[in-house]
Amino acid sequence: MTKSILVPVDLNHESSWAKVLPKAVELARLDGASLHVLSVIPDFGKSIVGSYFPSDFSEKAEESTRAELQALVAREVPGDVRADCDVVHGSIYKKILEAADRLNCDLIVLASHRSDMQDYLIGPNSAKVVRHARQSVYVVR
User: Fold this and answer.
1) In a 3-state reduction of DSSP, which class is residue 61?
2) How many folded domains does the chain comprise?
3) How many other C-beta atoms lie within 10 A of the C-beta of residue 46?
4) Listed residue (9, 138, 24) closest to 82, CA to CA
5) What CATH number is attached to the domain comprising 68?
6) Of 12, 29, 59, 73, whose CB neighbour count within 10 A is largest?
7) From the CB of residue 95, how many other CB atoms can be counted at a distance below 10 Å?
8) Superkingdom, according to UniProt (predicted)?
């Protein structure tokens, strides 16, 4: 029985959520599970890169992303399905795995790839999540 579902989305790519959110809603309704919709703000890597951004860039990026994510969930997730939003910074696949563990999720539902990555059957982050997750992973193509 699934109690909690993690749904990672990239707000810049509709393909990461257009088919995924309806499928996650369908799965959540089967067992009365809740959804945790996650957006990861990628890490810039070396600190020298970060020095080119304003000092409050990270906070503003998180604020803006959280507002966009909440709007997406309000628009795409029906009121009869419990859903919350989470925004984190870092390595995309690592943060997805960490969130799934931290939130005690039973299932991760994610897109196989972004539409601009047509040469891949499954995108690099999705593949790593599938390989390393402790939870079941449902990949939507």
Assistant:
1) helix
2) 1
3) 8
4) 24
5) 3.40.50.620
6) 73
7) 23
8) Bacteria
Alpha helices in the chain (DSSP H): 20-31, 47-50, 57-76, 92-102, 124-132
The pTM for the full model equals: 0.88
Distance (Å, whole) CA 65 – CA 61: 6
Residue 121 sits at φ, ψ, to 5 deg, of -75, -40
Burial of 75 from C-beta contacts in 10 A (0-12 / 13-18 / 19+): exposed
The pair phi, psi for residue 77, each rounded to 5°, is -105, 120
pLDDT of 3-43, one tens digit each?
Answer: 999 999 999 999 999 999 999 999 999 999 999 999 999 87
Q: Which domain holds residue 115?
A: 4-140
**Cβ neighbours for 109, distance < 8 A, ≥ 6 positions apart:** 5, 6, 7, 20, 23, 24, 27, 137, 138, 140
With 0-12 / 13-18 / 19 or more C-beta atoms within 10 angstroms meaning exposed / middle / buried, residue 25 is: buried
